[in-house]
Design brief:
The chain is of the alpha+beta class. It folds into three domains: 91 residues; 118 residues, Immunoglobulin-like, CATH 2.60.40.420; 91 residues, Cytochrome c-like domain (Cytochrome Bc1 Complex, Chain D, domain 2, Orthogonal Bundle). 43% of the residues lie in helices and 17% in strands. It is built from ten helices and twelve strands. Strand 1 and strand 2 form a beta hairpin. Helix 6 packs across helix 10 and helix 8 crosses helix 10.
Length: 346
Amino acid sequence: MGSRRGQWVLGAVLIASAVGIALGLSIHWFPPAGSTQADKIDTLYDVLIIASVPVFVLVVSIIVFSVIFFRMRPGQELEDGPPIHGNTRLEVVWTALPAALIAGLCTYAYVVLRDIEKKPTAAQAATREMKVKVFGEQFAWTFVYPKDVAGSELTTTQLYLPIGRPVDFRLRSKDVIHDFWVPAFRLKMDAVPGIETHYRITPKRLGNYQIVCAELCGLGHAAMRNSVTVVTPARFKQWLQQQTKPAAPSGAAPAQVAAAGRKLFADNGCSGCHTLKDAGSTAQVGPDLDKFLKGKPDAFIQQSIVKPDAFIEKGYKPGIMPPNFGQTLSKDDIKTLVAYLKEVTR
């Protein structure tokens, strides 16, 4: 009877494990892989599912089996169980097998980590690893491209990467601990004040991918988001050239200024925090600009962009809006953005 009962339990464990593994592998836990490193990390995750599901099922099955067949019956409240010496062979097995499983998984994880951290080699400049500095501050990301990539050091709030070219992100923080995470790339790393951390990726899919701060960093943490755009090498070169040009040329017509200002508003993440009817944004992290800037002079609007804590609207707190737009936007672009905001909030 006991042997048959054990066989039923073992059969149930095997079936449940197979079903659990199949379900675990069929679920799309992550967004589509956007880097070559993501494929190796996804495989590691699948291996962890295959290893951990049977362990979970076995432990739960033993608990349920014990509760059903070895529970205390009425009248046994004061009885003690029969004395047992134990089973040395079983104790060795249930200690050695988990230890071997953990050691194997740790070894495989280490091999994957070493592989994705390996510095790539390339003879051609177009495929040589590109170093991009990433600065985190409450509550924005700033990116700095080196001279050998952009011609002169380029500081921007936009992150563009050419497909197929390795990138070494050098992470720093200007205030508190942040965490630079692109879910499509699978990798994440803390940006810590006073030290530089880094990780490498090689984009493999064209598209636009979300950047998230994965470390609680203050009141505006939820708004500390950005995006990375993976483009062709030709489009990347074109984008770099555009960064040195003003958003609106000198003497531009009002329609050109409006279009350029609207693009600056969107590209720099303003629509993620503010409501502005002309830009189609309805966010409420910061003040409603249709009301807040109505009738305000140019100097006040510019101050609100480059020194956002100089005046705080009632009901809002300081330190939410990034203070770095004076560094990431050129004087011409700030002038264009001011003209646009003044016009659309009259």
